Amino acid sequence: MTGVIRAFALATFLILAACATIPPPAPTPPPAPVPVPVRPVPTPGPTPPTPSPIGPTARATGFKVEAPRTLKAEEARRALAAFQASCPALMRRQDQSQLTSPGSWNAVCTEAASLAPDYAPGFFFYRFDWLKVGDGRAFATGYYEPEIEGSRTPEPGYVPLYQLPPDLVRCTKADGTTGRGRVDQTGTCVLYFTRAEIEDGALAGRGLELAWAKDPVDLFFLEIQGSGRIRLPDGTVIRVGYAGQNGRDYVAVGRLLRDRGILPPGGASMQSIKDWIRANPEAGKALMRENLSYVFFKELTGPGPLGALNVAVTPHATVAADPNYVPLGAPVFLKMDRAEATGLWVAQDTGGAIKGSNRFDTFWGAGPEAVAIAGGMSASGEALILVPKGAAGSASAQP
Question: What is the Rg, in whole angstroms, of the alpha carbon atoms belonging to the chain?
């Protein structure tokens, strides 16, 4: 769950008639400046299906071009808006998936900038190659923007949300690996404090407290989501987002409960995990501490939460993905066994638990409905990655 963070993360449907099979061609609009855009983390979901063998990138894994799918109007409009916001970052980024090359996105991003929403289905149908990476078998969970009770000042029983500590740095450890850690008094790069060490006061008294949460369980799940809202006693709300992570491995506590036979297979929903932790306070605290990963926050202003592209993520349109297999900012089509997750999304986020080919985390926004959908989301099906026509072919020809 990291930005953990945890990403990452696009919605639902078409300008064509519901039964149409060929969308109208999208006209080529004159170039126009792309609007300047202005990051959460996935829930611990059920274990995904066993994937087929994959390489370190999408290109190394292999792909083939599939026939484009017909889209619904509203789905395509939402995806177009998310794609337009992502384009400035998309055109600047080095594509880790190796599906595209520098400059591959310039033409479609220029076209999208001034494209009328009604032409969105044709735009995605005609201007992109739809790629199946590996066997295309996909697994998707869901995430949302939670709201928890809290305070700007410490209160009895409240626990702190910390800002990013200045001593959390990238350094080279004794074994020669480089990563997040801290330099101790001897000048040696060591692992950063664990969740338990931080909760026991390793950062106390350093002025790093951003706010205080009333419920430590709520704060734990706020970390998993990577961003959220804190409702203060006077009713005002502050928004917080992912600022960094301690460099420790993320452990899905739901999987631990399933593996130990405490919760049944398929029964480790977010709510069932919360209920078990609250019903077993001491064991629940120990369980949460088995997830050594700890997330630091920053206060957000303006639209949000922000995804891995530093662009505001969009409910029902943003999906978190692994950038080694999906170009961040690219459209993604999911056909899943859950209707809510089926449709066109845009990969605007990443997540600590979202790793591997065809692994996704769908973003649902805030509120009770978003909590219900995201908390229970576990969908299997097929994924197709959309890249500009011909881009993957030229990329695959590169040494």
Answer: 21
The reported pTM is 0.69
| Measured distance CA(112)–CA(128) in Å, rounded | 12
Give the chain's domains with CATH numbers. 58-143+311-396 (2.40.40.10), 147-252+291-300 (2.40.240.50)
CB count within 10 Å of CB 341 equals 27
Asked if residues 371 and 144 have their Cβ atoms less than 8 Å apart, the reply is yes
Prior bond of 305 cis (ω within 30°): yes
- Look at the chain and count its residues: 399
d(CA 232, CA 210): 13
For residues 384 and 66, give the distance between their C-alpha atoms in angstroms, rounded to a whole number: 8
Q: For residue range 191-234, what is the model confidence (pLDDT) as tens digits?
A: 999 999 999 999 999 999 999 999 999 999 999 888 899 999 99
Measure CA 117 to chain center: 25
CA distance 314 to 1: 19
